[in-house]
Input
Amino acid sequence: MKKRSKILVLLLFALLMMGCSNSKKKDDSKFKQKQYNLIKGLNQSQQGKYSKAIDFLLMSYNIDSKDTMVLRELAYNYWQAGDVKNAERFYLEFLKINPNDSLVRFNLGTIYYNNEEYDKSLKLLETTNPEIVSNDIIALVGYNYFGLKNYEKSYEILKSISAKKTDDLYFSKVYGEILLQTKRLGELHPYITKLYESNTNNPEVVYIYGKHLAFNLGKYTEAVEVYKKYIIDNGANRVINLEAAKMCIELKNYILAKQFLDLIPEEEKYKKNYLEVALEVYKGLNDYTKINEINAILNRLN
Output
């Protein structure tokens, strides 16, 4: 009996060791498969093939749903693919495991901000561990308050990092708009002039600068010259050409206004905003044939 007991014990021990060995091999195989799929997913993502990247990353996720790198990459690729709901899902799963990743918090906060879910974005960002708060997170908090039209709060936040964000064009545009909304014109003019001088070929900056000259300083002629220079250097821009035409109407220079309108592509000339400006121009030129044509088109659009 004793000899048989010893044999049974040895057999059980051998089976246990074999099970551990098989389990280890199985775990190693799963790990390798997860890593393989992750690498394939990263390669597809780098090529801009986000849907294919997601397919590989989901294979890794099915092997290990707690791998933070897989979760972060899934969220990012869903975001790039336009699937915001799944991007949010995987970013939230990531934050349950690692709540102190500033980039993930910033990305998810940006998704909420882009969706105009400003309160949701602020709740996430303002509960970030102070030790990991970046200037990008601070700026995003300021943008959210801007979205909520709390301009004073936004100004206070963005002002604190304005010296560190001089190369951030989006920051500059929002900050310039805040200075305008809070009527800090003394601070706005040097700020927006410097922004324009560094970005004379950027249509958004040129547009903002021209509006500033015309509507804040009353310098309509100067604003028109700024727009004219942009168009000569870069070609027609629907928004800038229309704004230049409006300013020419204010100056009662209807011939120049028409020249700006003539440069706008034909396909844009049947849109309501163009037609409304054109109507005022042709009224100034006393061109009743064009006035009747435009009124007829506007009536059909209405």
Summary: The domain at 30-98 is CATH 1.25.40.10 (Serine Threonine Protein Phosphatase 5, Tetratricopeptide repeat). The radius of gyration is 30 Å. Confidence is low (pLDDT under 50) at residues 7-16.
